[in-house]
Amino acid sequence: MATKDRNSIELAKVVSRDPDVHSGDLVFAGTRVPVQTLVDYLTGGASIGEFLESFPTVERWQVESYLDYSPEAIDHLRTENASPA
Questions:
Q1: pLDDT for 45-81, tens place per residue?
Q2: N or C: which end of the chain has fewer CB within 10 A?
Q3: DSSP code of 85?
Q4: Are 5 and 67 within 8 A, CB to CB?
Q5: Contact criterion met (CB below 8 Å) for 73 and 34
Q6: Taking Cα atoms as reference points, which of 32, 25, 29, 41 lies closest to residue 69?
Q7: Percent of the chain scoring above 90 in pLDDT
Q8: How many CB atoms lie within 10 A of CB 66?
Q9: How far apart are CA 75 and CA 82, in angstroms?
Q10: For residue 67, which phi and psi values (nearest 5 degrees)?
Q11: Cα(59)–Cα(14) distance, rounded to whole angstroms?
Q12: Beta strand 15-16 with 27-28: parallel, antiparallel or unpaired?
């Protein structure tokens, strides 16, 4: 199986999008927790642990996998948390 196909299958275990779940927002698979909520927590200075305490239906491996799969999420966090020059 090609790497891209394998990554797509694995990513489907991490996040999902369904028009009937949270208005079609990207959510953590098997939950109704939007991925944007994680981004908001992290850009607000919270830790992954704090996010997981607030949203116990999300598994740590899902958060870590999403961040691994999503370099743009990491770039967004770096940009948001950058100190003004």
A1: 999 999 999 999 999 999 999 888 876 655 555 555 4
A2: C
A3: -
A4: no
A5: no
A6: 29
A7: 44
A8: 20
A9: 10
A10: -65, -35
A11: 9
A12: antiparallel
Residue showing tokens 């704090």: 50
Cβ 66 vs Cβ 73: under 8 Å: yes
| DSSP line for 9-49 | HHHHTTEE--TTSGGG--EETTS--BHHHHHHHHHTT--HH
Is 11 in contact with 2 (CB distance < 8 Å)? Answer: no
pLDDT attached to residue 85: 46
Please tell me the predicted confidence (pLDDT) of residue 17.
87
**Which amino acid, one-letter code, is at 71?**
P
CATH of domain 3-81: 1.10.10.10
Q: Which two tokens stand for residue 17?
A: 């999008």
